[in-house]
Write a structure and sequence with these properties.
- This protein is an all-alpha fold.
- The protein has one domain.
- Helix content is 77%, strand content 0%.
- The longest helix has 27 residues.
- The two termini are 26 Å apart.
């Protein structure tokens, strides 16, 4: 599919994707209360793999850098599993806020992995984002939840995966990268499945099916969005996911974000937006 400049369509697609991700995360939190986490994520990855196979349409799937593809696949599946472990015990807003650390971690990791030079302003944005994370997590206080560490680890895995995605962009076509990630995730979770398995009820099967479809369609909408608009333009709209997860958390779990979560979220979002702005300036 050719790339066309249509910013409005790109924004609409990415906002729509955040809505689907919010519903998928809410479903994951709900299922985590009754099923092993690896079980329903495995089901999600099986659907993801089927979608990825359909996307290749007989194209070559051999990678020129299989080691990087394996590392990326492990990062993606690790991020998915760790995020659900965190969201099982945290509010939707807290877990999603911590997940937005990934762009800041990419800035830090790009120095040793991509040999990029990070200026004082971007370092300032990173430190501000870390301060926001500490406000949300509140270590050493009665409000601290150990589950937040799963969220931080999930963000780190996702940052690694995105950095490798940058490196792979000029090496393998996107369909190959998606197929490798889906296949590795499904393979790893298939090995873990016998360790914790519960026969799901019919309603749980339908929820797992919905989860897999929503997550897969959301990923595809993000890909389409970036065909119509640049990443720096779309980045601010990804933070609308905080709105949808807060609404979903209130409606389904009666979770209301406390003031410290809102303050920390504001700082992290501001630092992320500034990082995206500096990235656009640097590329120019």
């Amino acid at each position: 599919m050719a790339q066309t400049e249509d910013p409005i369509r790109g924004i609409a697609l990415v906002v729509g994707a955040t809505v689907l991700f919010a519903v998928a995360d809410t479903t994951s939190k709900f299922l985590a209360g009754s099923l092993p986490i690896t079980e329903f994520i495995w089901f999600r990855y099986v659907l993801f793999l089927l979608m990825a196979v359909a996307m290749t349409r007989g194209r070559p799937i051999r990678s020129r850098r299989p080691g990087l593809q394996v590392t990326r696949g492990l990062g993606v599946v690790g991020s998915s599993v760790l995020f659900v472990y965190g969201i099982r015990q945290m509010t939707m807003a807290q877990a999603t806020t911590i997940s937005f650390l990934s762009p800041l971690l990419i800035t830090v990791l790009s120095i040793p992995l991509l040999k990029e030079v990070v200026g004082v302003r971007r370092w300032g944005a990173v430190l501000a984002g870390m301060l926001g994370m500490l406000i949300v997590v509140r270590p050493g206080t009665g409000g601290f939840q150990p589950a937040a560490l799963f969220g931080v680890a999930s963000s780190f895995c996702w940052a690694i995966a995105l950095i490798i995605t940058r490196k792979m962009a000029a090496i393998d076509p996107p369909q190959t990268t998606i197929l490798w990630s889906a296949g590795i995730g499904a393979g790893v979770l298939s090995l873990m499945l016998p360790l914790a398995f519960t026969w799901p009820t019919l309603p749980q099967v339908w929820l797992m099916l919905m989860l897999g479809v929503l997550a897969s369609v959301g990923q595809w909408m993000v890909v389409l969005a970036h065909r119509h608009a640049g990443a720096s333009l779309l980045a601010p709209f990804t933070y609308t996911q905080l709105i949808w997860v807060s609404i979903a958390g209130y409606l389904v779990f009666a979770n209301v974000p406390d003031r410290w979560t809102l303050v920390g979220a504001g700082i992290i979002v501001a630092s992320g937006l500034y990082t995206a702005h500096r990235e656009r300036v640097r590329r120019r």
